[in-house]
Amino acid sequence: MAAEQPTPQTRKPVLLSKIEAFQDIVTTAVIIPKEDGVISVSEDRTIRVWLKRDSGQYWPSVYQTMPNSCSCMSFNPETRRLSEFILAEDYNKMIPARTYHAHQGRVLVVLFVLEMEWLLSTGQDKNFTWHCSESGQQLGTYRTAACVSGLQFDVETRHAFVGDQSGQVTILKLEQDNCSMVTTFKGHTGNVTALCWDPGQRVLFSGSSDHSIIMWDIGGRKGTAIELQGHNDKVQGLCYASHTRQLISCSSDGSIVIWNMDVTRQETPEWLDSDSCQKCEQPFFWNFKQMWDSKKIGLRQHHCRKCGQAVCGKCSSKRSTIPLMGFEFEVRVCDRCHESITEEDRAPTASFHDSKHSMVHIHYEATTGNLLTSGTDKVIKLWDMTPVVS
Ligand SMILES: [Zn+2]
Ligand SMILES: [Zn+2]
User: Fold this and answer.
1) Which of 43, 222, 238, 330 could share a disulfide with 194, CB 3.0–4.6 Å?
2) Is the pLDDT reported for residue 223 higher than 80?
3) Which biological process annotations from GO are given for this protein (predicted)?
4) Are 143 and 105 in contact (CB under 8 A)?
């Protein structure tokens, strides 16, 4: 079974260019496909369009200063619509199209859905709203439990995925002027920081400040949730490259992880509750009664990440990676599980790279295979992600 796994492609991000002219952090930036351009919005209140010159450097093409710092944007390459501006064909002009008075506080995420002519947005006022982008009218609103930091939409079924700071993902079914709550996904112990929807495989990825990514298999109908543990810090951005079946994730510690999603991973087991070690039967320290009866010193309860059993430290002294359960780092396993994990099972299913800046945002452009990262160092970096031919 394990022998059938395809070997992950070597895809080392190669730095192509840097854009360094910002006064403050670039909150969002996107690559303009076919044009060799970049659009950026920044805390320094600017919206800028950059075009690549023959020298390979990016030079500013248009520039617009907003009354407030810019927190997010949504750009549609087909219509060249940038939330509320329309970019001229030669990218030398920005035409204000519309202002939406959607939120009381700062706008956190916007998403333009061309097929529906909808503009979805969330704000610090904890409202999720959607507007008609033709009339500018507000169509509906939904009050979320906490501030929303991740937003994705499935055009085919009109479901919105809303990830918030309580760690929960709410699934809403949107109609023209109302919405209904379908279900919630609870799996993270920290804020949801990023969401990524792959409409092809009908899989939702959520990244969190708890360092983990969860893959929610919505299309598979089995309701599986697979954990991906490969970051040592907050997950800040997620992109899915559908043609190579790779998930790209970035974290505030500067690491970029490329996950091979062509392998079948297993769900992590539920942690079992027990008053004593499920291997040697020594009681855990809070089990006062049994401890007293058997006159043994209580032990600390740990869990084997592979079988989920509650075990003492002595019965789980070894560590192992379990890539097929999403653990790219070594985790606690019981002695019996440790013996059952083969060298083959330990083959990594993700590759790790250092971007050398603390990232706040990433964007992957499939047609060029380029990745854009934006950091707290106020720099945008562009990377070539195409496979290395050896
Ligand atoms: Zn034990
Ligand atoms: Zn075990």
Assistant:
1) 238
2) no
3) positive regulation of fat cell differentiation
4) no
